[in-house]
Amino acid sequence: MSQERRGRVARTETQEVEQESRFKKPVIASTQGLSKEERTAFLDGTKLFHDTFKHLTTLSTGSVLLILTFYEKFRALQGRAFAASALVGFILSTLGSVAMMMFLAKDLAVMGKPTPYDLFFRYGSRATAAVFVLSVLLLSIFAVVNLSLPS
Helix or strand or coil: residue 28? Predict the structure, then answer.
C-alpha cells in the first residue's frame, strides 16, 4: 500500500471515530485523569451547589408570596419601594438559581470539562447570591419600617 493511500485510510478511520464519539452520551464513570476520590469529590461538590440553589429558589419563592400577602392584607404600608425592590430581587434570585441548577446539570454531564460557559456560572452564582442577600435586607427594612408604626 502506498504512503498516500495509508494516509487517506488513517484519516478516514479517524473521522469515523470522531463522528461516532459525537453521538455518544457522556458517561459519568469516564472522568479522564481523575482518581476515584477526585470523582467522588466532584460529584459531592456539584450536589452541594445544586442543593444551595434549590434552597435559594425555595426561600425566594416563599418571600415573593410573603410580600404579595403583605400587599393584599395591608393597604397602608410604609416603605413600599423597599418591598417592591425586594420582590424584584427575589424574582431575579429565583430565575438565577434555576439557571445555575441547569448549568450544574450540564457541568455534571460533561464531568467538569472546561467550557465557554464556565464564566457564566462563576459570576452568575455570585450575582444570584448577592441579589438574594440584598433582597432579604430590603425585606427586613420594609418589615422594620412597618413594625415601628403606631397602630
Answer: coil
